[in-house]
Amino acid sequence: MSRHQAYRNYDYENDLDEYDGEEAYGEEEEELSPEDKAQMEAGTIQVREALGPQASKVTTAQIQEALWHYFYDIDKSVAYLVTKHIASPAPKAAKSAPVQKNKGKVSQKRSFLHQCPMVYLAWRSRPWSRSLQVHARMKEMRWHTPQVAPRTYQSSKHFSFAAFFNDMPWGNIPKHREATFIAPLYPRGGLLGGAGTPGKPSKLQQLALARKKKAEEQKAGNTDQDVQGTTTQMSRLSVGQDLGANEARNPPSIRGSSSPDPTPSSRKPGLGTLLADRKRKVGDLGQVENSPVTKPSPEPSVKSPNEEPAPEPAIPSAFAQTLVGSAPAAPKHIPRISYQLPYMAFTSSVSDAFSGPSPDDVVLSAQAKASNKKLASSSSKKTGGHDAKIDQASEGVKAMNVDDTPLPKSKNLDVLKEYKNSKAKKSVSFVVVGHVDAGKSTLMGRLLLDLKVVDQRTIEKYRKEAESMGKSSFALAWVLDQRVEERSRGVTIDIATNRFETEATIFTILDAPGHRDFIPNMIAGASQADFAVLVVDASTGAFEAGLKGQTREHALLIRSMGVSRVIVAVNKLDTVDWSQERFDEISQQVSGFLVATNFQLKNVSFVPVSGLRGDNMVHKSKDSAADWYRGGTLIQELENSQPLARALDKPLRMTISEVFKTTQSPLSVAGRVDAGSLQMGDALLIQPSGEKAYVKSLEVDSEPVEWAVAGQSTVIHLTHIDPIHIRVGDIVCDLKRPISCIDTFTIKALAFDVLMPMQVDVHRGRLHAAGKILEMPAILDKVKGTTIKKKPKVVKPGNIARVVVTLSDKMPLEAGQRIVLRSNGETIAAGLLNRVLLRRSQIEHLSFPP
Amino acid sequence: MQLVGAKSSQRLNDVSEGSVTLLPVEPEDMWHANNLISPEDVIKAHAVRKVTTESKTGSTHSERVHTDLTIRVTSTFFDTAASQLHVTGTVIVENSFVNIGQFHTLDLELSRPFTMWKKNGWDSVATETLNESLKQDKEGTVAAVVMQEGIANICLITEYRTILKQRVESTIPKKRAASSDQSSGMRRFFDKTLTTLMRSIDFGTPRPLLLASPGFVAGDFKKYISEEGTRKADKTMMAMAKDATVVHSSSGHLHSLNEILKSAEVLATMKDMKFSKETRYMDELFARLRKDDGRAWYGVSTVVKAVNEGAVGRGGGVLMVNNSLFRSLDLATRKKYVALVDRVREDGGEARILSSDHESGQRLDALGGIAAILTYPMLGLDDDEDEDEGDGQNGAIKEDLII
To answer: Which Gene3D superfamilies match (chain A) (predicted)?
Structure first.
């Protein structure tokens, strides 16, 4: 189905049609674009509707061909189909009668349509006009000549240019942009050669035309008579007569009620029939009945030929006049000037023609209603005329080729309310800490396996791979240790997050590395946790080593990060044959130092487990040697733990723990919302870069959501920001109440080691930077908080002191945050940031009085 | 630095009154010059000056003239990264282009001699600095990369200072299910670090390279260098990888150099270098401070008190002063410190002037720039807290202002 075929239907003579551009144009259009397809489908449906019972007589292909040919002009297509496929083979009367009865406008349209061949004939009979084709085309392109009202200009003497282009589907032109095509009445012609005067066609051409006319008439003869009658009648009308007559007879319905109507009374019958027609088609349309009356129809489908607007053509532009000669045309135009006003009004009414729902939409919505489809009236109103406008606008935008994605829309939800109303499971995160090789990752791997988060096959696969590397016992740990390095070295390097659900709770696991070199990562994990699982290796010698090593430091760190609840998993108890003595001994020692590090015993519980074998994890141990243990399993202990209170109403703060690319967005960040809430469409500020970003979408626990609140592990898909502005450890914060970047501050710190003015690493969650202790203004009393000693030279371990810290670079920090100071690979102090300071040098630079 | 001029070169001990003509030959010499030149000194050096002349008709004409200028120094500015020294002062010897009292900033250049007079003669500290600067047996500088995941500090450790050449930062995706992202991020980071390293430090002649990091980053980086060298058939890289020493550090921040310089691998190769001694002294000081045994003190007033008591003397007394204290202070203060140093030396203790551009100097800087290890414990030195004048760090806070 190509355009060329369409031309063949009209029996173009190749030698006559020498306009190459047309060819190229046609070829461009050959592929159906997605919009075209959609239009085609919609058109097919509409045509079928219009055809009613006749629809079965035509194939979809035929309809689509017709639509393509008429460029989705439903009425024309219908008319074409009726004449071509329905009316012609069948007995005329039988077919045309119902058509006329049911769809008066269809038949009317048919009559309109069938004058087209005549137009071509008229045109062909005037070879000089070919030279004008180019001019006409130029106009077409510039002013988007409408495809309407061809009839009015038709005469044997002056052919209609407009009609010629009428069924040329090049102009997918928004109606409101259409101008009236102005036919120069006495074109001079000859610009591009040919006869200087409107000369006669050559004999050959005349012969060819005569033949064509015959063929055309034969075709037309098949159609019903009234069509032919109208056609001939119409073709006889002169331009002048036609204008006047037509105007008087059928004022254009396209004039809205707002436009001044010169003949209001004459409009009524036309509209009446129109309404009646639609009523029949639609059924109950009580509430929308008015709309076609008040709102002019922009859609060709509701225009009957009789209602076709006959807008008063404007005076040709200076350019056109120069091209085709204004002198002879001028006198002819003079009387028309009097019609200028209605024409103007007409255009203005067109411009607001889309303010209401289009009749088609009215029809559609009514149909939808009838078929009990849920279609909100508001949406139908919106998608009415506006739709067309939006389409045009979007087309315009497309044409402009502006590459700017729109900002994500915010729903402006009251997130806190939504959160209160939502009945989601409580979400809790816990960090797994302990000395290196205590079996933290394996324990969690076992937990995930037993909870069926990971299937046995995956574990088997890992086991095979691990065996090939000679460390088969690491298979379970590989569930969490996913990095190549971690697997090859058998040590966790970075925090691994994973989640599982029980009936009441969604748990987020933060598997921390135990190795002392990766304590920064462990701090990052601990800062996101509500409580902790301290894994202790019970095997002989290992526990003691751990107690000297990271077991103690981790306990200190989690305490100073604000974690108060600890579940001590005494791991590898199977290696000591589930010895109760060993368990008790370990419990005693661990609770001893936990109390020393300010944990309350009621918040500490001990579970003997075997991570490798899975005893007392999800299920009770089946080993008879472990019968002495009466307490709950690890999972029960986990469920007994409550999340910390969330700072929901504080301004948004989220530390970025991961930055990555996804299919959804080129830039996604993950982390736990520390405070506040956010929702889709929010504008955020990334500190310390100070760049603005927008929330494209959100995920909480791998589920797309519309909002997120403090405590939830959230993935934010961001837009409108360059990835170079975001690093791990940055803070996502509220645009209105942002966190500021500072470099000097006071912390109230508990010293774990000797503090003196020295260089330290400053850690806050994922964030860490080089800094130094500037001075220690005071040692404070542990209970009362009063100053014991001013300006000590050194602060001894165990003391609480005010410490002034300065950073080499500014970091986003604010009062109330937990800071850890480390030096030479050891944690030396931890505490709360309680004051932001300015250095004197900075104060001097400030212009305002301090 | 070379001493020029036959007269003075032979009798360096007699420079106390006279002038010294020095020829800087390498960037390090500029740093020495910066330590040597203090305000009120007189410098004579080659200068380029724009001279504007006005003709009788009032038209002006300016040209750049090369001339020798003699100035009395008011301030110096040392550009660490470029190793350039700018000396500002007033002209004291008139010539056809410049009048007395006009200001000029001399840009001391390599291979151009300058002459300097000390206004107040050459004190012990100045002579020591001069001696140091004239040392010919330069030991090879060491290139070091202190790194962790995503951060690499590329620096050059010379005898007297640590120069941070470049800091490389790279975002490395954290652990997700798709771990390939992570390793490719790591490769990108290594690539960036290696190219920066090659660009900022000349490896034309083999020099030791230290790679330090927590965890396995440094080891992996070394492997990466040798792999890249093999892949590109680059001899320099392969040699680099061969000479590289992997050292453990607790973080990738520059101050971890402390640990690196202490490590056995480094000490084995560079134990004679000035900084390694300084690092040892600083460690001792910190250890004593930690013990709080009354034998280690820091801060100007306490140290002055201790020195005056004669506690920093024979048998383990060490006074450590940062050279930044000598550089930009007014004469009276400088004299005070010089007297302190002399006193300790008289008492038989050791006085060390630490380079503030080294890590040990940075640590001392944090303590106020001066510290001492006493021969016997003294307690309660810090009881009266009226000082705060000297250590520009401690007074630098205004606590009332909160933002």
So the answer is: P-loop containing nucleotide triphosphate hydrolases, Translation factors
Structure tokens at A719: 């837009």
Longest dimension (CA), chain B: 82
Q: Is B170 on the interface with A (CB under 8 A)?
A: no
* CATH number reported for the structural domain that contains residue A715 in this entry: 2.40.30.10
Contacts of B400 in chain A (CB under 8 A): 850
Task: Round to whole Å and give the CA distance between A831 and A752.
Answer: 11
DSSP calls for B166-215: EEEE-------S-THHHHHHHHHHHHHHHHHHHHHS--SS---EEEEEST
B377 in reach of chain A (CB within 8 A): no
For residues B120 and B338, the answer to whether their CB atoms sit within 8 Å is no
CB pair distance less than 8 Å for B289 and A489: no
Any domain includes A555: yes
Burial of A290-315, coded b for 16+ CB within 10 Å and e otherwise, reads ebbbebbbbbbbbbbbbbbbbbbbbb
B268 in contact with chain A, both atoms CB, cutoff 8 A: no
The answer on A791 and A675 residing in a single domain is no
User: Do A513 and A561 belong to one domain?
Assistant: yes
Domain total of chain A: 3
What domains are there in chain B, each with its CATH number? 2-134 (2.30.30.870), 142-270 (3.30.420.60), 274-396 (3.30.1330.30)
B6 pLDDT band, cuts 50/70/90, is: very low
Judge whether B41 and B139 are in contact, CB under 8 Å: no
Q: Structure pTM? A: 0.60
- Residues of chain B contacting A823 with CB distance shorter than 8 Å: 250
Residue found under tokens 């007699």:
B14
**Within a domain: residue A544?**
yes
Same domain, A579 and A708: no
Domain that holds residue A477: 435-639
pLDDT tens digits, A487-544: 888 888 888 888 888 888 888 899 999 888 888 889 988 888 889 999 999 888 888 8
> Which chain B residues are closer than 8 Å to A726 by Cβ?
171
Strand, coil or helix: A425: coil
| B371-384 per-position pLDDT tens digit | 998 888 887 776 65
Instruction: Tell me the mean pLDDT in the region A181-209.
Output: 63
Beta carbons within 8 Å of A801's beta carbon, 6+ residues apart: A748, A749, A751, A755, A776, A778, A779, A780, A792, A795
Which 8-state DSSP code applies to residue B367? T
Token readout for A192 is 């591009």
In terms of domains, do A691 and A787 share one?
no
Q: Are strands A767-780 and A800-812 parallel, antiparallel or unpaired?
A: antiparallel
Per-residue confidence at B191, pLDDT binned at 50, 70, 90? very high
Give me the interface pTM, i.e. the ipTM.
Answer: 0.71
Range among A395-409, B7-21, B252-266 rated most confident: B252-266
Q: Which residue's entry shows tokens 């189905």?
A: A1
The pLDDT mean for chain B works out to: 80
Instruction: Collapse the DSSP code of A360 into the 3-class scheme (helix H, G, I; strand E, B; otherwise coil) and give the result.
Output: helix
Q: How far is CA B343 from CA A23, B121, B314, in A?
A: 104, 18, 12
Query: Which of A639, A668, A700 is the last residue in one of the domains?
Result: A639
CA A484 to chain CA centroid, Å, is 36
Q: Are residues A555 and A489 both part of a single domain?
A: yes
Residue A228: predicted pLDDT: 54
Using one digit for the tens of pLDDT, what is the confidence trace for A162-189?
566 666 556 566 666 666 666 666 655 5
User: CB A759 to CB B298 under 8 A?
Assistant: no
- The C-alpha of B70 sits at a distance from chain A's nearest C-alpha, in angstroms, of 34
**Torsions phi, psi of B122, nearest 5?**
-95, 110
The whole-angstrom separation of Cα A198 and Cα A329 is 15
